């Protein structure tokens, strides 16, 4: 069912929306990376979502982090790059931010969008961590050259 919902969402975006801007956050609580598992697509992902009209990408990254996980950034965000995401109807771009310090603001509760959150050492990611998430972490921590696509 999850892949079907993802395909339907992609089709809806393709038909009714123009170019979209999304955000993702590489966020940490102590030395542990914060990841989310969605209800509508498989795998572990960096938290994130869409940028609202009138909102900066950085503000959206912090808002999405709080909405999806209950964690709040406690330090400055650092912009890492802008990526083209061809999987989302060929019209999506993702702004990536590094949030090195976060803390729990409210308890996480599973919902229609986020099934689960987890905190993981960056060198011991859970099975099912997406390839895009692994690439972004390699760019940040291993000095790999940034890609232009998500």
UniProtKB/TrEMBL annotation:
Hydrolase listed as a keyword: yes
Cofactor(s), by name: Mg(2+)
Species of provenance: Pleomorphomonas carboxyditropha
Pfam families: NUDIX
Entry-linked SUPFAM superfamilies: Nudix (SSF55811)
A single GO molecular function term of this UniProt record: hydrolase activity
Superkingdom of origin organism: Bacteria
Classification via Gene3D superfamilies: Nucleoside Triphosphate Pyrophosphohydrolase (3.90.79.10)
Family: Belongs to the Nudix hydrolase family.
Name of protein: Nudix hydrolase domain-containing protein
Keyword annotations: Hydrolase
All residue ranges annotated as the Nudix hydrolase domain in the record: 18-143
């Amino acid at each position: 069912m999850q892949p079907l919902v993802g395909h339907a969402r992609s089709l809806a975006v393709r038909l009714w929306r123009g170019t979209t801007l999304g955000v993702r956050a590489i966020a940490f609580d102590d030395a542990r990376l914060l990841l989310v598992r969605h209800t509508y697509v498989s795998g572990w992902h960096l938290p994130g979502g869409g940028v609202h009209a009138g909102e900066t990408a950085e503000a959206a990254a912090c808002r999405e982090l709080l909405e999806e996980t209950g964690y709040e950034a406690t330090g400055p965000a650092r912009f890492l790059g802008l990526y083209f995401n061809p999987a989302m109807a060929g019209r999506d771009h993702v702004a990536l931010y590094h949030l090195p310090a976060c803390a729990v603001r409210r308890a996480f509760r599973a919902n229609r969008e986020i099934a689960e959150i987890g905190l993981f050492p960056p060198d011991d990611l859970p099975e099912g961590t997406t390839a895009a998430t692994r690439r972004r972490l390699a760019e940040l921590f291993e000095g790999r050259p940034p890609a232009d696509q998500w």
